[in-house]
C-alpha cells in the first residue's frame, strides 16, 4: 500500500513512473539512457544523475503550452542536455540555476497578476530581484569554475604615441618599492 501511495504521489507531482514489467523491457534502453544522463548531469553515477534530474523536475512548475501538459522530468532532461555540463559540479550548478530561474520567473508572473495587492507585488518583486541576483552569481561561479579561477586579459590593439624627447618601454615593467631601495 505504501508503494502504491508513493507512485500516486509521484504521478501527482508530474514525475514519470514505470511498472516493474516496463522496467524489464526498458533495461537496454536504460543503459543507453544512462550515457545520456551523464551528458545531462556531468556525473558518471546513474543514481546521482537520476536524483539531480528529479530535483530539477520537482523545482519546475507544472504548466501547459497550447492546452497540453508537459512532463517535468522530460523538460528537466532536455534542459540539462542543452546546457551540457562538463562535470558533476557544473551539473549541480546548472540544476541550481534552473531552479533559480524557475522561481524568479514564478515571482515575476505573480507581480504581473491582475488581482495582486500592492504588498504582494512588492514582496514578489523583491523575491524575483534576489533570485535573479543569485542566478547572476551562479553564472559568475560557473565562469570561475570553468576557468579554474584563472583570469585572462587579452589586449587586442594598443597604440602608443611617443612625442619628441619622450621614452616608451614596451614589455614587463617591475617597480621596486622605496622600502626595497633603502634596504639595498
In short:
The protein has helices at 2-12, 20-25, 27-41, 46-58, 72-83, 88-111, 118-146, 178-183; strands at residues 64-65, 68-69. It is mainly α. A hairpin with a 2-residue loop joins β1 (64-65) and β2.
SSE layout and pairing:
Elements: H1 2-12, H2 20-25, H3 27-41, H4 46-58, E1 64-65, E2 68-69, H5 72-83, H6 88-111, H7 118-146, H8 178-183
Antiparallel strand pairs: 1-2
Explain this structure to me?
The structure is a single chain. With 184 residues, the protein is mainly alpha-helical. The chain has one domain. Helix content is 63%, strand content 2%. It contains eight helices and two strands; from the N terminus they run H-H-H-H-E-E-H-H-H-H. It has helices at residues 2-12, 20-25, 27-41, 46-58, 72-83, 88-111, 118-146, 178-183; strands at residues 64-65, 68-69. A two-stranded antiparallel sheet has the order 1-2. A hairpin with a 2-residue loop joins strand 1 and strand 2 (68-69). It starts with a helix and ends with a helix. 15% of the residues are buried. Residues 1-13 have a biased composition (Basic and acidic residues). Residues 1-29 are annotated as: Disordered.
Amino acid at each position: 500500500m505504501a508503494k502504491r501511495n508513493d507512485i500516486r504521489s509521484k504521478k501527482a507531482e508530474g514525475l514519470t513512473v514505470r511498472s516493474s514489467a516496463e522496467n524489464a523491457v526498458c533495461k537496454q534502453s536504460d543503459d543507453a539512457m544512462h550515457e545520456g544522463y551523464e551528458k545531462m548531469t556531468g556525473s558518471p553515477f546513474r543514481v546521482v544523475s537520476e536524483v539531480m534530474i528529479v530535483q530539477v523536475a520537482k523545482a519546475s512548475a507544472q504548466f501547459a503550452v497550447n492546452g497540453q501538459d508537459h512532463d517535468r522530468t522530460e523538460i528537466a532532461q532536455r534542459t540539462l542536455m542543452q546546457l551540457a555540463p562538463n562535470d558533476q559540479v557544473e551539473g549541480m550548478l546548472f540544476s541550481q540555476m534552473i531552479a533559480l530561474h524557475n522561481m524568479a520567473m514564478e515571482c515575476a508572473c505573480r507581480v504581473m497578476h491582475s488581482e495582486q495587492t500592492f504588498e504582494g507585488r512588492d514582496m514578489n518583486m523583491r523575491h524575483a530581484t534576489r533570485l535573479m541576483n543569485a542566478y547572476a552569481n551562479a553564472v559568475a561561479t560557473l565562469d570561475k569554475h570553468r576557468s579554474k579561477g584563472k583570469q585572462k586579459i587579452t589586449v587586442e590593439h594598443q597604440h602608443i604615441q611617443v612625442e619628441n624627447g619622450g621614452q616608451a618601454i614596451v614589455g614587463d615593467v617591475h617597480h621596486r618599492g622605496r622600502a626595497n631601495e633603502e634596504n639595498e
